[in-house]
Amino acid sequence: MKLSWSHAVLYVQNKEVMLDFYTNVLGFQVTDRGEIGDGGPEIIFMSQDPDEHHQIGMIDTRKEDGPSNSVAHVAFRVGAFEDVRNLNHTLEKVDGINIMPLSHGNTLSIYFNDPEGNGIEVFWDTPWHVSQPQGKPWDVSMNEQQALEWVKAAFQDESNFGPRQDYHDKRRAELNA
Questions:
Q1: Mind spelling out the 3-state secondary structure of 112-170?
Q2: Cβ proximity of 41 and 58 under 8 Å
Q3: Are residues 108 and 174 in the same domain?
Q4: Among 31, 46, 54, 60, which residue carries the largest CB count within 10 Å?
Q5: Which domain does 171 fall in, by range?
Q6: Confidence at residue 65, expressed as pLDDT on a 0 to 100 scale
Q7: Is the residue at 2 inside a domain?
Q8: pTM of the model
Q9: Tens-digit pLDDT profile for residues 42-72
Q10: Is residue 67 in some structural domain?
Q11: For the chain, how are helix, strand and coil distributed in percent, rounded to 5?
């Protein structure tokens, strides 16, 4: 059995604030919404992927204040380096959002919180594999070429640094053995 990622559902306190953030800041679209059962709480489904009915869901039944402590973060991959930079620029304009640019060697990521403190990572894959855990702050003002040169210089002496494709080929062989 091979599992593939589909979605996460968040318990939220203020669905209107959260809906505004996920649609207007992160660019999700509402795909469905409605009561769970007869008279139950509303669930809102959102996606950016036409092949996924929902990537994020939210139900406004969260009771406790403060950041969620059940999940560290949810992560989303983007296809272009500029997507990470552009999102970082957008998030800098949103009150209450804390941004932490972090590279794991195999990614250039930004970590941030949503309005209710849930952790989110948006990342772009670099061409390299690096044994994990790794994490070094990076300068989001760099262009793609500068960032890739920085990643290589910062991580090339780490364990198992090498081409991402070599790592994936090895993993495929191990899984098919």
A1: EECCCCCEEEEEEECCEECCCCCCEECCCCCCHHHHHHHHHHHHCCCCCCEEHHHHHHH
A2: no
A3: yes
A4: 46
A5: 72-177
A6: 78
A7: no
A8: 0.84
A9: 999 999 988 888 999 998 888 877 777 767 7
A10: no
A11: 25, 30, 45
